[in-house]
Structures are given as structure tokens and as C-alpha cells.
Design goal:
Length: 290
């Protein structure tokens, strides 16, 4: 689910991302993670041959490309408690974003108290994602998520709008699983592990996003603090092969950093988490409420 403002790939390798993340850690920020364990002796250290190769695909099967899925609504819940993508109603994340053109944006994501029954029969939690520039809304979205019985968080669609001069200029990217051939995808696996690949969303010719877990032991500094043991995810778009984005997720928090590598560039980092009023995010597109 890469919105147009976040489309950010040429062919780069994980070491390149590691260098970018290392650069992020040079600034001193408050620590929000447990101290690293003491180093073990060489006799206690496992052999490198025992460690799984990041190129080996895990055995877990998740939806790919345009593959159809048969989902039982009874196996889903709006209580999303996946540790890397928790959606507790009332939680509000605020991000600072600098896009590829140097524009400074504010992104506010609120887990609302609202739910929505999707066309495929699953009831989803409604999350509001609002982007402003100099106080004016430039993009506003209702995202729909639900968690299955195994702990995978599914992305079931979005109702989105872009704005110019206070008026809706585009509804491109909106889709609902079960409508016009649109399919749901995975936004966060139950157990992220290197090599795990999955479809994030599929609406032919309009929304064909993919995710891949690259590692689960990254660390980085952002405005909100220092984090370790992060999940690093690679995001691509099948219909826009030059677009690449990397995202970092922290346990019990969610996304803390997104880095645009190609296709537009940009950086989005977490600056604040707080509790929103009950009415937050419940207004119509263009009027999200406080």
C-alpha cells in the first residue's frame, strides 16, 4: 500500500540499506529498547552454518501476486494485536515526512473506534491516515485491516482521496477486497522471518503491492528514540518496477521509519505516539476531526 506520495527503487542490495540505517544512528536519541545481551564466547557461539540463509524462503505460504484466496470471516477479528502492527483503538502515530521533492509533510495515523464490513464478508478495523502540508490536507485515507486466527494482519482495502486547494483531485488507489476482482493481502505476517514474501494488495492495474521481510534484527534512531530488533521490510509495486521502499517496524509500536530508495525518494519517521479523542479520524474525507 504505497501511496503516490510515498513511492520511493533501482536495484540496490541490503548492504546499501544497512549503510543508510547506520547513518541514521549517528545522532544521539533516548533509548527505548532493552540493552543488548552480553557477547558469548566463541565456544558458545553457533556455527555460521547453523544460521538460516536470508535467501532461503520460509515454508510459510502467504498470498502472492493475483493468486485467489478463500477466507472464512469467522477466522478474523478486528482486535489486531500483532506485535509489529498493533491497532489499539485510540492510538495515534505522528510522522514527519520529507518527500523526494523536498516538501515537508505531516502524517497522522489514527486507529478509530469504527469497523467496516468488507465485500468479502470480513469485518475490518478502520484506520485513518491523513497527510498535511503547511496545515492543508493533501491526502486522506480510510484503511481497512483485520487479523486472522494465526496472527497475520490482512489489508482489505482503502478509501482514499488526494486534495488540491481544498478540493478532491483524485480517488486513484481506492479499492475494496471482493469488489471488481480486488484481492486482500498481508500487511504484517504473524511471524516475520527473512525471506518471507507476500502480496500486500491487488487491484489489477491500480494497486499491486508486494512485501518481503529482509531481516528481523535491525536498529535505528528516529526522532521518537532508539530502537533495536526491528523488522526490515522491502516494498515493491509490480506495475511500477522502479519503485522501492524499505520500512522498519518495532515491536509493540509498529512502523517507525520508511525510506524511499527509488521512484521518488523520501523519508518518513515517527516523532510521536499518543491517545486520540474518541472522535478522531471519524469525519468524512477531508475532515478527519481532531
Amino acid at each position: 500500500m504505497l501511496s503516490k506520495r510515498r513511492m520511493i527503487l533501482s536495484v540496490v542490495s541490503v548492504p546499501v540499506v544497512s549503510l543508510m540505517l547506520a547513518a541514521c544512528t549517528q545522532e544521539s536519541t533516548p533509548s527505548r529498547s532493552a540493552p543488548a545481551p552480553a557477547t558469548t564466547s566463541s565456544e558458545e557461539s553457533p556455527s555460521p552454518l547453523d544460521a538460516p540463509s536470508p535467501l532461503e524462503a520460509p515454508s510459510t505460504t502467504l498470498p502472492q501476486g493475483a493468486d485467489p484466496v478463500s477466507l472464512d470471516p469467522n477466522e478474523f477479528t478486528t482486535k489486531v494485536d500483532n506485535p509489529y502492527f498493533p491497532l489499539e483503538p485510540g492510538t495515534r502515530w505522528t510522522y514527519a515526512e520529507a518527500d523526494g521533492k523536498g516538501n515537508k509533510l505531516k502524517v497522522v495515523v489514527v486507529v478509530t473506534t469504527k469497523t467496516k464490513e468488507i465485500a468479502n464478508g470480513i469485518t475490518a478495523r478502520v484506520v485513518r491516515d491523513t497527510v498535511t502540508q503547511d496545515g492543508a490536507i493533501v491526502e486522506d485515507t480510510f484503511d481497512w485491516y483485520a487479523q486472522d486466527s494465526e496472527g497475520n494482519v490482512w489489508y482489505l482495502g482503502e478509501n482514499t482521496a488526494e486534495f488540491e486547494n481544498g478540493e478532491i483531485s483524485s480517488r486513484e488507489g481506492s479499492f475494496e477486497a471482493g469488489v471488481d476482482g480486488a484481492l486482500p493481502g498481508i500487511i504484517m505476517p504473524a511471524e516475520p522471518e527473512p525471506g518471507l514474501k507476500y502480496r500486500q494488495e491487488y487491484y489489477k492495474g491500480q494497486a499491486e503491492d508486494n512485501g518481503e521481510v529482509l531481516s528481523v534484527d535491525e536498529m535505528v534512531d528516529v526522532a521518537y528514540g532508539h530502537f533495536e530488533d526491528l523488522v526490515l521490510e522491502k516494498n515493491t509495486i509490480t506495475i511500477e518496477p522502479r519503485v522501492l521502499e524499505y520500512k522498519l517496524y518495532a515491536k509493540d509500536i509498529g512502523m517507525i521509519l520508511a525510506l524511499g530508495i527509488s521512484g521518488g525518494g523520501g523519508r518518513e519517521e515517527l516523532v510521536k505516539i499518543d491517545q486520540a479523542p474518541a472522535s478522531a479520524g471519524t469525519g468524512p474525507l477531508g475532515n478527519p476531526n481532531p
